[in-house]
């Protein structure tokens, strides 16, 4: 028996993410005009298995193994991170386009890869472009792996394929889920991509995510 997945339609503001069951000419959240776009959302099938029940544990019994912090190789970044990279960390690095976010994270990835495998995912540039930047920085390490891909399903599969010391995804606005009808960088896509990557990070792989700031000074999708 084939279980059909039901679909429903909703509308989201492409500036602030406010949702509505119907189209609105003006967003009640940010006041923007004509910012609502239609999104098709797939509902889970009725026969979906129940979630696994996890038993809460006393605070004193929680393992402290995850408190190990791995240095980024840059003291200023270590200080911002509270001493270094911890397992399960999910870090969003935001800034204007071209300010050097990708270069900074490539340097961090190269340093950490001296201790073990690191994955650098580029959804914006080609593999060759990233290789050129790496050579300019003097990065030449067999344990730094590159994946030029934007499909979040392929990215997640690569992240789960082996244990990585850390991973970089560049960027939040260009990675996408093809199952969503909205364009990459839209509110729905950004929300979905971030949620999928966070689940992977919380399983133990620290992830650094690049986010571009728009002309309004925020990382929200442009209207």
UniProtKB/TrEMBL annotation:
<dbReference type="GO" id="GO:0003677">
    <property type="term" value="F:DNA binding"/>
</dbReference>
<dbReference type="InterPro" id="IPR041166">
    <property type="entry name" value="Rubredoxin_2"/>
</dbReference>
<protein>
    <recommendedName>
        <fullName>RecA family profile 1 domain-containing protein</fullName>
    </recommendedName>
</protein>
<dbReference type="InterPro" id="IPR027417">
    <property type="entry name" value="P-loop_NTPase"/>
</dbReference>
<dbReference type="GO" id="GO:0046872">
    <property type="term" value="F:metal ion binding"/>
</dbReference>
<dbReference type="GO" id="GO:0005829">
    <property type="term" value="C:cytosol"/>
</dbReference>
<dbReference type="Pfam" id="PF18073">
    <property type="entry name" value="Zn_ribbon_LapB"/>
</dbReference>
<keyword id="KW-0479">Metal-binding</keyword>
<dbReference type="InterPro" id="IPR003593">
    <property type="entry name" value="AAA+_ATPase"/>
</dbReference>
<dbReference type="GO" id="GO:0140664">
    <property type="term" value="F:ATP-dependent DNA damage sensor activity"/>
</dbReference>
<dbReference type="GO" id="GO:0005524">
    <property type="term" value="F:ATP binding"/>
</dbReference>
<dbReference type="InterPro" id="IPR020588">
    <property type="entry name" value="RecA_ATP-bd"/>
</dbReference>
<dbReference type="GO" id="GO:0000725">
    <property type="term" value="P:recombinational repair"/>
</dbReference>
<feature type="domain" description="RecA family profile 1">
    <location>
        <begin position="66"/>
        <end position="213"/>
    </location>
</feature>
<dbReference type="Pfam" id="PF13481">
    <property type="entry name" value="AAA_25"/>
</dbReference>
């Amino acid at each position: 028996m084939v279980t059909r997945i039901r679909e429903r339609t909703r509308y989201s503001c492409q500036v602030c993410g406010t949702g509505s069951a119907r189209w609105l000419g003006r967003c009640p959240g940010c006041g923007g005009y004509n910012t609502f776009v239609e999104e098709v959302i797939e509902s889970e099938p009725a026969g979906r298995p129940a979630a696994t029940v996890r038993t809460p544990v006393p605070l004193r019994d929680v393992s402290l193994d995850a408190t190990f912090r791995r240095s980024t190789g840059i003291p200023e970044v270590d200080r911002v991170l509270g001493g270094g990279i911890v397992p399960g960390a999910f870090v969003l690095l935001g800034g204007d386009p071209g300010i050097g976010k990708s270069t900074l994270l490539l340097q961090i990835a190269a340093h950490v890869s001296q201790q073990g495998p690191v994955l650098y995912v580029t959804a914006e540039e080609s593999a060759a472009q990233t290789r050129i930047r790496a050579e300019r920085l003097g990065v030449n390490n067999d344990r730094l792996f590159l994946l030029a891909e934007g499909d979040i399903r392929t990215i997640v599969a690569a992240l789960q394929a082996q244990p990585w010391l850390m991973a970089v995804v560049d960027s939040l606005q260009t990675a996408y889920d093809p199952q969503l009808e909205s364009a990459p960088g839209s509110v729905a896509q950004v929300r979905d991509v971030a949620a999928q990557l966070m689940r992977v990070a919380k399983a133990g792989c620290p992830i650094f995510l690049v986010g571009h700031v728009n002309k309004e000074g925020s990382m929200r999708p442009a209207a």
